[in-house]
Write a structure and sequence with these properties.
Elements: H1 8-31, H2 35-42, H3 46-60, H4 62-98
Helix pairs in contact: 1-3, 1-4, 2-3, 3-4
Length: about 110
């Protein structure tokens, strides 16, 4: 980190934040990913991804923000469906295990 003589290090952090916001948004849009998938890909928390996309991205790149916002809205509208699908798979797997149709050694 640079010396704190004129606040240069703070400006570097701000630039890095903006670059991260843009990279997150590009990934989210390109892959039509969820916040969770984006966070996992970059190795950061979901909270950080959401905060970067919702609060910092509009200041860094307004056009990219509008595209990312549309993907987030789609994800929010579909999340109850994904949750229901996950539950269905869970119980189907448990049923197959109980019936001995599922090999746990794999």
């Amino acid at each position: 980190m640079k010396e704190n003589t004129s606040g240069e290090w703070f400006a570097d952090i701000e630039i890095a934040d903006k670059e991260r916001c843009v990279r997150l948004a590009e990934y989210l849009i390109e892959h039509k990913a969820t916040v969770r998938a984006t966070a996992k890909h970059f190795g950061i928390s979901k909270s950080t991804v959401h905060k970067d996309l919702a609060e910092k991205l509009p200041h860094a790149n307004a056009v990219l923000y509008q595209e990312a916002k549309a993907i987030l809205a789609i994800n929010k509208a579909e999340r109850h469906l994904r949750g229901g699908q996950a539950t269905k798979i869970k119980y189907k797997t448990l049923k197959n295990i109980k019936r001995g149709k599922f090999d746990l050694t794999r």
